[in-house]
Amino acid sequence: MTGLAEKVLALxxxxxxxxxxxxxxxxxxxxxxxxxxxxxxxRQNPLQPVDYSPDDLVEVEVRTSAEEPVLLRMEAxxxxxxxxxxxxxxxxxxxxxxxxxxxxxxxxxYSARYAEHGLEPTDEFAARxxxxxxQTGLALDxxxxxxxxxxxxECFHETxxxxxxxxxxxxxxxxxxxxxxxxxxxxxxxxPWHLRYVGTETAAEVTEYxxxxxxxxxxxxxxxxxxxxxxxx
Length: 233
Ligand SMILES: [Zn+2]
Fold this sequence. Notes:
Elements: H1 3-18, H2 22-25, E1 57-59, E2 71-73, H3 74-89, E3 94-98, H4 103-117, H5 119-125, E4 139-144, H6 160-168, E5 174-178, H7 183-186, E6 191-197, H8 200-208, H9 213-216
Antiparallel strand pairs: 1-2, 3-4, 4-6, 5-6
Helix pairs in contact: 4-5
The structure holds zinc ion (ZN).
Zinc ion (ZN) binds at residues 98, 134, 139, 141, 194.
Keywords: Carboxypeptidase, Hydrolase, Protease
GO molecular function, one term: carboxypeptidase activity
GO biological process, one term: proteolysis
């Protein structure tokens, strides 16, 4: 090795040593444990076991637009209740429309669509059973009561409710899980209404750096499923 090459190499190593290490800047790492609030679920990471169900589900005591009670894991439910309460105090009226969905419920939802529309439109519309964040009990879909035309529609992002969530959801441990323009990473188009609970420390960092969970946890992008066909029962 020439003297110059050695110098360049030494410089490179010095520069690398100055970079912050992941554990120093991050509040959390991705988990494969379905009971962790940091479990990563996407098209490359199904829940394990695939029919996982949390054992601490409780009803979220907030205004809902659902016929059935909206359930979340206890920690996420308590935080969601605080979020809704604070939003209301600040003049923002949210309602919950969907929380925990079991493997069987997701199967039903997916299968009905699949039978009618086939694979591709169904994959765009809903996660395959075992691949939905709603099955973790940590994901919550919300709506704006005053803007019923935007229920589970992209125009939700133009409502005052979304504007409030964009700046405040992280204070309650939630992130906007499927941000605009990140479909190639998350596998989902913009879903301004879909909140994911990760705890306040992680939510603060993810929001501050404007990252997806895949990026924040330094995990591969998950635009596609590995298997051609869904695992339906
Ligand atoms: Zn959702």
